[in-house]
Amino acid sequence: MSENKQSNTGEQEIDLSIIFQKINIFFQKINSVIFRSIQFVIKNIITILVLSILGFGIGFYLDKNIIS
User: Fold this and answer.
1) Is the pTM of this model over 0.70?
2) Which listed residue, of 8, 14, 49, 55, carries a Cα 20 to 30 Å from 25's Cα?
3) Which residue has the higher pLDDT, 25 or 14?
């Protein structure tokens, strides 16, 4: 009887360690995505700025001339 309880407890601890490993892997992936996003913005900052200014300018022009 007591042997069954001990083996069952051991299996639960293994399950918890696997769950904690999966949670750790999940947070590592989140950190990786954040780091890659920051790298992308740094590499393409000029393109992002040009497209943003261009979009703002076209939107402002269309708002002033076509809608009014």
Assistant:
1) no
2) 8
3) 25
User: What is each CA distance from 51 to 31, 40, 47, 56, 60, in whole angstroms?
Assistant: 27, 15, 6, 8, 14
Q: Please say whether the beta carbons of 13 and 20 come within 8 A.
A: no
Encoding tokens for residue 60? 């402002």
State the amino acid at position 48 in one-letter form: I
CB environment 3-27: b (16+ within 10 A), e (fewer): eeeeeeeeeeeeeeeeeeeeeeeee
Which alpha helices (DSSP H) does 1-68 contain, by range? Answer: 2-43, 45-62
Structure tokens at 49: 């700025």
